[in-house]
Amino acid sequence: MKHRFPKTLLLALSLASLIHGASADQLPGEAKAFQCTGCHGPHGMKSAPGQPAIGGRDPDEILALLKDYQSLHRINPAMLALLIGLRDEDLEDIAEYFSLVGEGHL
Fold it and tell me: Which of 20, 26, 69, 91 shows the smallest number of beta carbons within 10 Å?
């Protein structure tokens, strides 16, 4: 006798295993930095014209830039939209991620 699982249960189990497997291989900043890759590229080495390369820069430098955008000391509506609601810990994780990934450590 075959057991039949509802398709929704199988889908839920598949998604759970994907999420669990992906999170185990990621740095804390990788998921948070994903939204940045549209303009700055997957390694922070810019993919959109006119965007600065942030990959491989000192994490404190990246963090200072992120905080400047978040506090409106630097004005960029796209950056502000992405940074609203992020905590200092999130910004630190993003800065660390781009610092490492740009240097080829990941």
Answer: 20
Q: Domain 28-102 carries which CATH code?
A: 1.10.760.10
- The answer to whether residues 99 and 62 touch, using CB atoms and an 8 Å cutoff, is yes
- The structural domains of the chain, with segments of one domain joined by +, span 28-102
Long-range (24+ apart) CB contacts under 8 A made by 51-58 are 53/102, 54/98, 54/102, 55/98, 55/99, 55/101, 55/102, 55/103, 56/98, 56/99, 56/102, 56/103, 56/104, 57/98, 57/99, 57/102, 58/99
* pTM across the whole model: 0.72
